[in-house]
Amino acid sequence: MELVVYLAGQIHDNWRDEIREKASKLGLPITFVGPMENHDRSDHIGEEILGPQPNKMLVDDAASDLNNLRTEVLLSKADVVIACFGEKYKQWNTAMDASAAISKNKPLILIRPESLIHPLKEIANKASVVCETADQAVKALSYIFETE
Amino acid sequence: MELVVYLAGQIHDNWRDEIREKASKLGLPITFVGPMENHDRSDHIGEEILGPQPNKMLVDDAASDLNNLRTEVLLSKADVVIACFGEKYKQWNTAMDASAAISKNKPLILIRPESLIHPLKEIANKASVVCETADQAVKALSYIFETE
Amino acid sequence: MELVVYLAGQIHDNWRDEIREKASKLGLPITFVGPMENHDRSDHIGEEILGPQPNKMLVDDAASDLNNLRTEVLLSKADVVIACFGEKYKQWNTAMDASAAISKNKPLILIRPESLIHPLKEIANKASVVCETADQAVKALSYIFETE
Amino acid sequence: MELVVYLAGQIHDNWRDEIREKASKLGLPITFVGPMENHDRSDHIGEEILGPQPNKMLVDDAASDLNNLRTEVLLSKADVVIACFGEKYKQWNTAMDASAAISKNKPLILIRPESLIHPLKEIANKASVVCETADQAVKALSYIFETE
Amino acid sequence: MELVVYLAGQIHDNWRDEIREKASKLGLPITFVGPMENHDRSDHIGEEILGPQPNKMLVDDAASDLNNLRTEVLLSKADVVIACFGEKYKQWNTAMDASAAISKNKPLILIRPESLIHPLKEIANKASVVCETADQAVKALSYIFETE
Amino acid sequence: MELVVYLAGQIHDNWRDEIREKASKLGLPITFVGPMENHDRSDHIGEEILGPQPNKMLVDDAASDLNNLRTEVLLSKADVVIACFGEKYKQWNTAMDASAAISKNKPLILIRPESLIHPLKEIANKASVVCETADQAVKALSYIFETE
Amino acid sequence: MELVVYLAGQIHDNWRDEIREKASKLGLPITFVGPMENHDRSDHIGEEILGPQPNKMLVDDAASDLNNLRTEVLLSKADVVIACFGEKYKQWNTAMDASAAISKNKPLILIRPESLIHPLKEIANKASVVCETADQAVKALSYIFETE
Amino acid sequence: MELVVYLAGQIHDNWRDEIREKASKLGLPITFVGPMENHDRSDHIGEEILGPQPNKMLVDDAASDLNNLRTEVLLSKADVVIACFGEKYKQWNTAMDASAAISKNKPLILIRPESLIHPLKEIANKASVVCETADQAVKALSYIFETE
């Protein structure tokens, strides 16, 4: 049995690498998917594919067309969603993806630092598992497959 | 035909009053619902109902139990969701409610200032209507009922 | 038992009046809903509520934001959808509404002239009832309530 | 991860070839499905399988039985739907397929010429991505798989 | 709390009257709905509304258009379905309605004579309650409301 | 706005009275529904309506036909489910109703004594609110309606 | 792309063989599933697995437990359902399976002799394709895969 | 065609081994999944992954986070659920899993000793098959695949 896990969260640094590497070391039969991790490309993918846009809002709107297309397709394939929040950035699309996962009955693993307990309390309350490190999230995934 | 509209967003000031008053003046057959608007009570409702909690995280968790119960019941009754974002606060539960609305095929009206266009671009992209003022949101609701 | 019926179709003339009048004469307990029937207002509702738009495509996009909001809310309330096609206009949004009705398991009554049999054959094939006049559509609605 | 993409639209010319070829050159792991592209066969498949029909309307109805069977089966397998509109033909079944995709939460990529912006505005408003060329549509598909 | 109960079954005799009368005597807050009970009208409703049909099969097909429209609308309103089978007639549409009820998670009460136990065993196996008389079916409905 | 609340749990004593009385004193607009509370009648309702049964297992099976019919109809009307566990009895049907509520996205309020924390941990983990007294459960319901 | 097709209908003769053979000759990538075709075993599978039953009705009920388990599992895997009616037998479980397919949005191909047009008119009206021979049904399946 | 079967029930002894071995001997193409069968690890998995917890209730809550995550993922993959009840233990999570299966339209095979007929009567009434031994459950699974 193979699982697909969507990694929702900011794309300014490479936090996903730790999850992928640890899962790989454990030999977990998991395909990880997620947003475009090249931040600059993600922000300009609308213009790249659809051409120049009349103003900044439409640059953003065109980019989100493509980013939402990608997220919808890949999230629909996911068995589990990991959403990772950090102290920087607005991360409203992370909250959007986390909530979409819950609404579609896909279990959510939430990673967040202690400092964000209060503002994330409603999302945490709906997550299946709440943890603070990538290592814990991978162990939660591993537990799904373990037999003893 | 009567509609139920859920007003998602922060509860630190009374932005909902303008919407309720304008809708009332127009005589729109709408029942507005939403979270507990008394911020202090919302943060301590867990202890108020379930008793003292061992630590701050559990105070938050107990409060979110009750707040999520309320949101789930009232959001399930809603025909439309208005989500209002401002420049202060994390507002991740607003994003969670907005995304839940979309996932449940409830149309979303998003109110946000121009300064938040970029970080809200993916949510805006999925909203039915994106506007900047409460007045515009009420006019959008009114349009659903107008006959000429 | 009361029913809600959505009247999908072009808004250049007042074809809906015949249906409403005939149903009213028969005393059918039906609330009819549908799009804004003032064509000019429908085309400019985006600017009216959201303000001036940078170009014609965005005028159209803003108008469709509001028109789709209205359609989604009212269609979700409907028990039956009547879609009326005529020989003029593209009417792709009529086809969109008819198909949305079918996908949401809402029975569709299709009204179309004989001349459109061929291009509408796939939609007709999925409709519950296909007829040529408003009078026939109202009789079909009436039959739902008749007891002998 | 492999995807299935349904190509909705007219079958009078071979516009689908460009999409298939470009996707093939990029090595995208996509299976393309769609309607019978032999127009004459599509129109007479009812008689071919079910035998002679008493009149022209029933020839059309029998053909649409088979065409709708095919569309329903293949659309239900699709992860993404591309709907292509051109300046010729009624294309109401294209609008029907596009709307069915949206109602079933399958992302829609809409290809249409600038001249059709106004009549397609409500469908465009619900599409994930709106573009003007097959090349752009393939790039949108490719973006789902790209990692940098 | 009011319930809607759909009475599925043949329309050659007035078996529904006993159910309606007994429920009425018990003062149960139930609205009963069901097919057109005038058998002749049910068989010719297609021609009555849509006009003369080219052959007998199309007379039947047109009639079933209207009968299925009625059933779909009323069954979608039902909280419970009673399906009554007797020793005469094919009653395949009764089996169709019973199965549609089960598939839509609407509890089914099956009334059938002892002689039909074997051929109805798969449907009986999926019904919530299987009984032999209208009186038993009404008592089952009444039990939903009783408080002691 | 009125709510329907299903009260799941054993029927050997009248624990539901406290909830109904407290909610009534608070003037909450709630209709409470639930199983037949007359335990003896609940156990013999199969024979009462369907007649004598060949053995004890079939007495039980016939009774559960009627009890499940009642539960399915009333649970489908509920906006919230309260499940109350005590130290006596197997209460597997209470667990069944609680789980059905969760699966149907109906928020669950769980009442259980401290002594049952361990064996109920998986159900508690899925409940919206977990408390120990009827008073707390009613306060949770009341909070849904409060405005300050 | 492979499809699964459920073959619903009586199990007194081997009508399914013709479908399987013709599909095999055409090389269609289809897995056919269906009920146990050994009629005697189907009728006694309850006793075979669960042991002797107290009376004939319970023999039937136990058999239908196993037969319905099988049908539910296999029907849930099916992309298309073929239901075949003949002039003999009650065939109410065939009607049940056909209706379950329709309710679950699985396209239905109905095979029936001309003599059954009238009693099957409501089911035929909901089928995607109605034909008279196994050969036609296989051609309909084949059409789903053909490219010219 | 391969099936996935979830084995719900207590984890204090190795009752699942008999099912797995018998299915293996029959060569059934079934992947069995289920909860962590190491009881001690199941009870302490919360602390193992998430670290020390402030009190016993939170040890239980953390463990159930992980156990529910596992169950949700694996149950969502299951085609059939087998729930086994014995005379020891509370087994409320077994009832929860059984009911979740039913609510998600996954057929349930219930194994229970004769002594539990009465308290399990409502769950038994909703199961597809009720039996007393693992051997019977495996035969029921085998019957899904048999062809004569």
From TrEMBL, chains A, B, C, D, E, F, G, H:
Taxonomic source organism: Pueribacillus theae
Name the record gives this protein: YtoQ family protein
